[in-house]
Amino acid sequence: MEKRTEISDLGEFGLIDHLTRNFEIYNASTIIGVGDDAAVIDHFGKQTVVTTDLLIEGIHFDLSYTPLKHLGYKSVIVNLSDVYAMNAQPTQITVSIGISNRFSVEALDEFYEGIYAACKKYKVDLVGGDTSSSGKGFIISVTALGEVAPDKFVQRSTAQQGDLICVSGDVGGAFLGLTLLEREKAIYMQSPGVQPDLEGEDYIVGKLLMPEARKDIIAFFEKNNITPTSMQDVSDGLSSEILHITKKSNLGCMIFEEKLPIHEKSRMAAYKFNLDPTACALSGGEDYELIFTLKQEDYEKITLNEDIAVIGYTTAPEEGTRIKTKGGNLYDITAQGWNAFKG
Ligand code: ADP
Ligand code: MG
């Protein structure tokens, strides 16, 4: 049998020491990390961005199909994604957890392995957190700090009329991964003997359980001297993010269905589940891609990057927020995707 260490064997301080023992410091801005009343961070003349996310068992994740290591990794990624979406570089995180005695120290070790892997990959420093008991569910709160050169941050509200609307990577995959895992879970609940059939679905399952933050896109902007006119990450679903940018920038838009970046594996999964791939791309969440707008003169520069798709352009607000289908029909974009009943 696997070893199980009770949290009570270590005590709160022993547990914190144990969980944070291997973390390294990557950033010169980290003056004081874990171990004092507060962390001390000095961004040396840069501006600081801060973002935080709360993840609650049963609401944001389901431990019956989410390995703890993946959950730790993803808890960090969702925050780093918000930092990159400001055109900033993440430098520090804090991790707070609410845990019950349902969890062993070994289970928390797995969770922290995921956190460690994300810190190492993205070169961010874990500088603190909090540890508390919770009734039953697992509660995770991660805060990320980042730095950006003075006034180089990019907001949602600053898109201009006639800008190109771009998306990194591909969208809809995480939603299809979730659909698959939920479906397999329902089958398992009915007949526990049946093994889940995830054959050939690594891509969409990976998109859900092991997302990455688009550090590479921010690096590409810097290298090619591109500053998006507006940007945000795609966490709720592409259509809802498009509406955030257009609303906050007081603009309309024209999106082209044929330009939406949908991975072949996502498309195939959608057909298998009898879903419309376009609807999945527009309304599915948790892609953690970046959506941004660019001045038209930057078009040549972004054609260098195969991982950026131009999906449309911004218009005057009176023109509304619309999508043109492959068949040439125009529909209004709604937060849920598109309104096929109101042409
Ligand atoms: P305080 O009494 O000031 O809340 P704690 O005893 O909770 O301090 O924490 C001691 C140190 O350990 C602090 O630096 C805190 O940020 C850090 N810490 C506490 N819990 C965690 C955690 N789950 N992950 C990482 N660091 C933590
Ligand atoms: Mg504390």
TrEMBL record:
ATP binds at residues 112, 129-130, 156, 235. It is an enzyme of class 2 (transferase). Gene3D superfamilies: PurM-like C-terminal domain, PurM-like, N-terminal domain. Mg(2+) 1 binds at residues 52-53, 130. Mg(2+) 3 binds at residues 37, 82, 233. Its EC number is 2.7.4.16. It catalyses: thiamine phosphate + ATP = thiamine diphosphate + ADP. Pathway: Cofactor biosynthesis; thiamine diphosphate biosynthesis; thiamine diphosphate from thiamine phosphate: step 1/1. InterPro entries: PurM-like_C_sf, PurM-like_N, PurM-like_N_sf, ThiL-like. Substrate binds at residues 60, 286, 338. The keyword Transmembrane helix does not apply. It holds the Pfam family AIRS. GO terms for molecular function: ATP binding; magnesium ion binding; thiamine-phosphate kinase activity. Keywords: ATP-binding, Kinase, Magnesium, Metal-binding, Nucleotide-binding, Thiamine biosynthesis, Transferase. Residues 35-148 form the PurM-like N-terminal domain. One of its GO terms (biological process) is thiamine diphosphate biosynthetic process. The keyword Metal-binding applies. Mg(2+) 2 binds at residues 53, 82. Mg(2+) 5 binds at residue 236. Mg(2+) 4 binds at residues 37, 51, 82. NCBIfam families: thiL. Catalyzes the ATP-dependent phosphorylation of thiamine-monophosphate (TMP) to form thiamine-pyrophosphate (TPP), the active form of vitamin B1. Belongs to the thiamine-monophosphate kinase family. PANTHER family: THIAMINE-MONOPHOSPHATE KINASE. Reaction mechanism of ThiL seems to utilize a direct, inline transfer of the gamma-phosphate of ATP to TMP rather than a phosphorylated enzyme intermediate. This is Thiamine-monophosphate kinase. It comes from Haoranjiania flava.
